[in-house]
Amino acid sequence: MSFISKPKVANPSLPSNELGLNRRDYEGSMSTLCAGCGHDSVTAAIVQAAYELALPPQSVVKLSGIGCSSKTTAYFVAGAHGFNAVHGRMPSIATGANAANRNLRYIGVSGDGDSLSIGVGQLAHVIRRNLDMVYILENNGVYGLTKGQFSASADIGTKSKKGEANEQEPIDPVLLALALGASFVARSFSGDKEQLVPLIKAGLSHSGFAIIDVLSPCVTFNDHEGSTKSYAYVREHSEAPVAADYVAPQREISVSYAPGELLPVTMHDGSSVLLRKLDPDYDPTDRAQAAAYVQERAMRNEYVTGLIYVDQKRRDFHARANTTDAALNSVPFERLCPGAAKLPRILASFR
Fold it and tell me: pLDDT tens digit string along 89-146?
């Protein structure tokens, strides 16, 4: 994976936050994702949220697994700590890092393939532990890096680029998180920056595990079999000396709609999704009501967006494990290793 650095040139009139940093100070490398990819809109929202919260870049830890979504972490907060894990294993790395230093802000970015297939077991247990982090799931329904196969979040009847229809039941990350006891559950759309930025800020400020399912359209796999301008047709009727690919630039999809409003959003291939923004009087503290509401709207093919559920009373990972306030690398060796004489007493405490 290669990264192109952005020039560190900013307009001197850009406003600064309380740390004296402007928005560009929270950017990262140049994106290598397809032009118009919804993931880049998510990146912009994370950048804006980090700037508005005035997060010191060195206090941020960004983690990811494998997939188009996992490239996102290279594109924001260049001065942060970072770790790109193997496929589906980001939650384990996040748990270890969080246990070692509770004083940092943890941002995990994953995809529907990385989180809901090979990584679904890891996601389930990081939710159960209520790890103090924000987990952004960029959800496009396909495996983008391996040519657009259905992911576990693809809806029944969704057609692939080859015209095949998905017949398997989807995994809804919002309902999964609610069932597993997540203390902060939200959903948004990559093109709705007005909603997404506040949700990310709220997730970063929440004590415990905050998951935000972000519907993020894939612009590359909207072509279909039978089109003379599809990638499949061109490859069948041409010979190339090298393996190359080209993705035509598309316009980014953005939306603006009021609380309580139902909005149909047209995708790049002409299909549409229905977004339902929560009413102002919706109660996000009732888990059973939240699950019932999401399921009710799903039966109408509507995606509920906004803060779906939050539990501010549930103890997070550190409160339950009674971890030290200090980062482990700052704890004196004598405290970390009490010696053989104290070992029997420590072992007895676990019996």
Answer: 999 999 999 999 999 999 999 999 999 999 999 999 999 999 999 999 999 888 888 7
Number of other CB atoms surrounding residue 6 within 10 Å: 14
Which residues of 151-251 form beta strands (DSSP E)?
184-189, 209-215
Helices (H) and strands (E) in the chain, counts: 11, 11
In the three-class reduction of DSSP (H, G, I as helix; E, B as strand; rest coil), residue 65 is classed as coil
**CA-based nearest residue to 261, from 275, 251, 273:** 275
Query: Rounded distance, CA 109 to CA 337, Å?
Result: 35
Can you tell me the distance from the alpha carbon of 126 to that of 182, in angstroms, rounded to the nearest whole number? 9
Unique residue bearing structure tokens 């939050």:
310
How is residue 153 annotated by DSSP? T
pLDDT tens-digit series, residues 174-208: 999 999 999 999 999 888 899 999 999 999 999 99
Dihedral of alpha carbons 302, 165, 249, 199, sign: positive
Task: Give the residue carrying structure tokens 């948004």.
Answer: 188
- State the CB neighbour count (10 A cutoff) for residue 203: 24
What's the whole-model pTM score?
0.81
Fold assignment, 23-320: Rossmann fold (3.40.50)
